Amino acid sequence: MPENNAELARAINEVLTWMGANAESAGAALGINSRTLTAMGQGIVPMRSLMIRFAEGVRRRCERETGFPAWWQDIDAWLRVAGYPPRRDGPAEGERAAHGRPGAAHPARPSSPPPRPAPPRPAAAPEDETPAGQCYRPVYERKPWGDSILHIFWVIDPENRKVFQRSMAADFDYKAEAARWKQDLSRLTKSQFDRKYGRFRYNGG
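User: That's the sequence. What structure does it adopt?
Assistant: Structure tokens below.
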């Protein structure tokens, strides 16, 4: 039996905390069965189609709310957290169906001129090798949330702008998580830190 997906469990529970809801009420709002959502909150990966349905529900919710990591609006990011390839990978549904049927005839392709060569790609931006600790600093906030509290770990830039946000439920080991972020701030470059924690970037900032 595969191990539970701890990263998925954390992400699901952060969504529930952000919504201020339990699995039953959140499931109804996001269009997914509450038992399935409870299992996802324990790190059990659902079928790919259910993962997409959940991600679509979260994205709709994000269109009306604030205070969420920007990556929550990306369905492919949710698929990657669950261990699935993004939707854009592989052939389209119609092509899979046609090629998957034994003896299916391949449709004739009309002749066409040779494709134009792709334009040259712009040169990649140089890596920012500045130590992350010189660009960011952590700030902890304890915020009331209904009958409970929310632990919020912010990472801000030298101009005190909020760049990253890590929200954790009251019973989450926030001290261990904050220690991990602080360690990465001290050992990673800015580019490396931005890539590792990009899904926690605050409202796409």
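The chain has two domains: 6-82, 132-200.
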